[in-house]
Every structure is written in C-alpha cells, then in structure tokens.
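Q: Start with the shorter request: fold the first protein.
A: Done. Sequence, then structure:
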Amino acid sequence: MEKGEADSPRRDITLHYLVADLSKRIGDNAEASRWARLTMAHSQFSAAKAIAQATQTLRDELRALKVAD
C-alpha cells in the first residue's frame, strides 16, 4: 500500500465538502447542494465525523435557502 492510500476516502470526502462549501460561498447553491449530496453518499461518510457534521450543517443552511435537493 502506498503512503496516503489509507487516507484516500477521508481526503475524497473532505474535497467533496470543500467544493460544496465554496460553491455556497460564491452563490452557486444548486452546485453546493449537489456536492453536499455526493459527500453524504460516500461510503465512508459517517466515519469522517467532523466533515459529516459540517456537511449536515451546510445542507441545513441550503434547505433554509430553499435549494432543491
């Protein structure tokens, strides 16, 4: 196993979340919602507790803005 391979799922989840967050920050809420859904659909989502909590918060904020899922 190459160095860093074990962290790949966590890295993927983190990157998905960051794209979602940045999309929201620039006002592209539909894209933010799409990336948040991808983050939550990741098989290792629940293992990344901090990202899971941040993604849930982001989804709640997007729902408050009435962004379609």
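Q: Next, the second protein, separately.
A: Sequence, then structure:
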Amino acid sequence: MDKVGSFEIAGFNHSDKKFSIPDQKKLYGIMPHDRGKPYDSITLVTQLMDDGVFEQYKKDFGKTIICGFGRINGWAVGSGCQQPTNR
C-alpha cells in the first residue's frame, strides 16, 4: 500500500529511495525470438521494476492476466498484462 498516493498530490507517489536497477540485458533472454512462443510475463514485468519488486494484485483470480504494482525510477506504477504461458 506504499504505492497509493495521497489526494492532495493527485494520486502521484514518488520515492526518493535510490533503487537498484536489475540487469536489463536479461530482458533479451526472457522474450523468445519467435514472438508466437509463450514467455513468462511475471519475469518480464519484474525485470522492469525497481529492485525487481512487483506486487501482484489478486494473484489467484485469473491465470491468463497479471495485475499489480511496482516502482519504475521511484514512481509508483500499475501494470496489467497477459500471461501467455497460461493460454
């Protein structure tokens, strides 16, 4: 819940904490060259988030969609994407 902004600042939430950025070169190994093949979206989204931290929302609600929260460059963001490995 640390990513929910306050009403006074229009819901924007930024942390001044210095985050470590995961190795972005790992992204090339997550996505297959043949985009028709399944890949793990959770791993992909986690790589994009600061410190590799992604909090899933209603993890067991649906197996083909991923929703959650994280931080990118200190800014709180929400993410929603499809999970191709569970088609």
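Q: Describe the second briefly.
A: The chain is about 15% helix and 20% strand. The beta strands are 54-56, 65-72, 75-82.
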